NELFB factor (Indicator maculatus), 540 residues
Amino acid sequence: GPGGAPGNLVRRNLGVANGEDLKETLTNCTEPLKAIEQFQTENGVLLPSLQSALPFLDLHGTPRLEFHQSVFDELREKLLERVSAIALEGKVEERYKKLEDLLEKSFSLVKMPSIQPVVMCVMKHLPKVPEKKLKLVMADKDLYKACAVEVKRQIWQDNQALFGDEVSPLLKQYILEKENILFSNDISVLHNFFSPSPKTRRQGEVVQKLTQMIGKNVKLYDMVLQFLRTLFLRTRNVHYCTLRAELLMSLHDLEISEICNVDPCHKFTWCLDACIREKFVDNKRARELQGFLDGVKKGQEQVLGDLSMILCDPFAINTLALSTIRHLQDLVGQDTLPRESPDLLLLLRMLSLGQGAWDMIDSQVFKEPKLEAELITKFLPMLMSFVVDDHTFNVDQKLPSEEKGPVPYPSTIPEAFTKFLQENRIACEIGLYYILHITKQRNKNAFLRLLPALAETFSDLAFSDIFLHLLTGNLTLLGDEFALEEFCTSLFDGFFLTACSRKENVHRHVLRLLLHLHHKVAPAKLESLQKALEPTKQVG
């Protein structure tokens, strides 16, 4: 018959004769042909009307195997349809009782390739496969591979290590994809790391696969979050925070209320997701986000650890920082100080919570970091004064010049600015985004004035991949300046080359930039840059 199965076991369990039985019959009989005919009659398809039709097939030279195989395939299809139907009909207990009985009968044939799909289908439709069967599937590599994700979820939820083995390569792939975007050779202002919308990002392969593996299983969702927290702590890699938010929102898109309703961050993440989509936190959503933060109750502070991880996602930080720069410009126009703007203070509060994520999860002390008063009373007004300097300079340029000649652009920066960038994480983040902002405006004067402050920043933030990815993109707008010696010396000798030898990533970003703009750089300068950028013997 089709399939071939492990001999005696099947006969004992199912009362079906097999090759072993035929061998036994033929060994112990006097008339082999009669014995074969009898075996065929006893074990063939028992339909009276078929007996006369089979010789007709013989006349056409159709082997019995082919006939039996096609009947078998038909029956298997019917059975698979029936199993799927049983899983949906009648009372819950009854339908599962039928499926359990069917599994009990058929499981001994699970190794038979022809029957395996039926057994797998029965298990797939059982919300709780008997423990013993799960253990047998788990112990056999091929069976484990063949079973449906619905069955694997039941295995994974009690085997964290096995689930970890399945998830781990996906997380590696995710981080690699992010790094490939940051180092991609396409440099542009219009298409950068932050261009794809949240909805587009959630369609990515890794997020989709994880969503499918989790299904509606809260236990598996919690395990994935635990993996992400652990990896974030171990590596400080903020892309794990992005994945944390993307995964939750992917389940939100599918309306998996079983999980969304129990994740305390769901509504906060949903609201923040809308801000990220607009790349701006508007007043209505700001109130909503503030409501969530103010609503954290005594005894539930642990949720701050999760919220901080959601806010540490670079896409969230980018949105908060861009909104902060926009607010500061508005305040200049309104003659208002930062301390008088509740919206601005909320943005700083969220930036601070996001930037403090690693420390909070590491120390397990769940309280919001205090904002330093000087950030609000000294640093932000200083940034506003830079905005004013630009306005003043532009107006001066337009006035009829008197004998004393044109007013030069301010070239010095307050020492306090440099100090803030070195010592205060939030100030540094906002300062870097301000520099990105003036570069995007093609404001060469302001850029050269502030550039020296970037040589030393808080935990080298000015040499982080995300900042350099954005800066190189914005610098393409100042392409023509690369022909000028002074500009190149400030940018390369004063900034990039100070870190190239100790930071391989900076080296890569400079090469990306030059690949894009080398034809604009003065030949003599290009030659000295090529010498400076030649890899040393130690570089891989």
In short: The CA atoms of residues 26 and 32 lie 6 Å apart. Confidence is low (pLDDT under 50) at residues 1-9. The radius of gyration is 34 Å. Residues 44-156 form one domain.
